[in-house]
Amino acid sequence: MLPRAYWCHADQVVPGSIRIPLSSLTTTAPGEAVEWVRESVRTVAPLLDREDFHSMWGWLGDHRAMDVAVVALRQGRPYAFTTATPGDGLLTWTASPVSVLPLAGPGCLIAAPPPRTTAAPPSSTTTASPWSTA
Question: Is pTM beyond 0.85 here?
Answer without folding.
Answer: no
